[in-house]
Amino acid sequence: MSYDLHPDAADEHQRQVSYYEEKQKGLGKRYHGTFRKAVEAACNGPKRYKIVWPPDIRRVKFTAFPFDLIYREQRGIVQVLAIANHRREPGYWLYRR
Q1: Which of 7, 8, 58, 65 to pair with 17, CA 20 to 30 A apart?
Q2: Residue 8 has what pLDDT?
Q3: CATH number, domain at 52?
Q4: pLDDT at 28
C-alpha cells in the first residue's frame, strides 16, 4: 500500500529531521528511519492499529522518539495527517481531515 503526506505533516517531519540533526550529527537520520518504519507499519497493516479519533483515524507510535504517526486509510492509500509530538495539544491536526 502507498502513502501520502499531508503538506503540514511533511513540514512537521522536515522540521524534526533538521532539529535532531542540529542537536547531534546523525540523529536526524535516525529520526527519519523511525518515521519510515512507522509509515511502513501503517502501510503493511493499516487496520491493525487502534482508532484514536472516530470514525477512522489511527496512530502508530514512534520508537525512541516522542511522536505518533497520525493517519487514516482511504481508497487503498494511507493518508498521513500529522507527525504529532507528544507535547502538542491532542487533536491539533483535526482540520487536516
Answers
A1: 58
A2: 96
A3: 3.30.2310.20
A4: 96
CA gap 65, 11 in Å, rounded: 17
pTM score, whole prediction: 0.92
Q: φ, ψ for residue 87 (rounded to 5)?
A: -90, -10
Report the pLDDT value the prediction gives residue 96, as an integer from 0 to 100.
86
What is the rounded average pLDDT of the residues 16-36? 97
For residue 49, give its domain range. Answer: 2-96
- What are the DSSP calls for 11-41, one per residue? HHHHHHHHHHHHHSTTHHHHHHHHHHHHHHH
Query: How crowded is residue 70: how many other Cβ atoms within 10 Å of its Cβ?
Result: 25
Q: What residue type is 76 in one-letter code?
A: G
